[in-house]
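Quick one:
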Amino acid sequence: MNSITDVAGIRVGHVQRVGKGWLSGVTVVLPPVETVGSVDVRGGGPGTHETDALDPTTLVSTVDAVVLTGGSAFGLASATGAQLWCEEQGRGFAVPGTVVPIVPAAAIFDLGRGGDVKARPDADMGYQAAAAAYASGDHAAVGRGNVGAGTGAVIGRGQYKGGIGTSSITLGDGVIVGAIAVVNALGMPIGLVPDAVPGTPAAQGLNTTLVVIATNAVLDAAECKRTASAGHAGLARALNPSHTLADGDTVFALATGAVGLDRSTEQARQVSLITLQSAAAEAARLAILDGVLAAASVSTAAGDFPAYQPVGE
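Output:
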């Protein structure tokens, strides 16, 4: 399906509200139990939650859910709802009497784009998005464009629509690398041109592009960290400028561990990882461009933002 859900076990749920002051939402990426994960934050204005827990040197290497949300730092409250849903399902790090789900989150800036600056995602929306992800089933189609965390997304200093996109790449020996991106960038997409010249640009505001990369390969936490780092190369190839002081660019990496890489020799190990991480960068790039194009075909209440089209079309 050219989607992150081509990776078996990865599920995606969106919840959004539009109208009556609202233009925001939450997206939850729900991996299989015992999925290993890490993150690389490179933007100058990040809004994140529990990303320190994904450092390869910390106690827990697995991730129970990843929350992508609107609402800037206020929207990070949605992670609490996703965490509660995971606890109810028994997903998390076992402690006496319960489990503590590892649910990192990252937010884009979309405050006030629907008219009410206080209309932003909360714990209930995070809970609903996690439940929607689970209910979607394996290999489900992923909503694209202005849905979930991409509902209020814009790009190009607020002049054009942004949104959610996804992609996947199949490598040899059954290895799949997929990505989902929330594109709310200060920069402009490379290789695309506007199909209309906007009037007065909207206020620049703050921005962010969020990416989750998933693979069915066996990776440890350090290898996931390097894969997330590679994803930023794809972000830089898709958007100009990227990683600015006003962007909170963040890339997560998840490894479900279903397919082993060739590690028969040190050279084979290096080639396997380099191939996978190169695919991760390309999957991130394709997901970002897909999000921009998908947003052009989805009706929203985001205002008069011109769409984009590929060069030459």
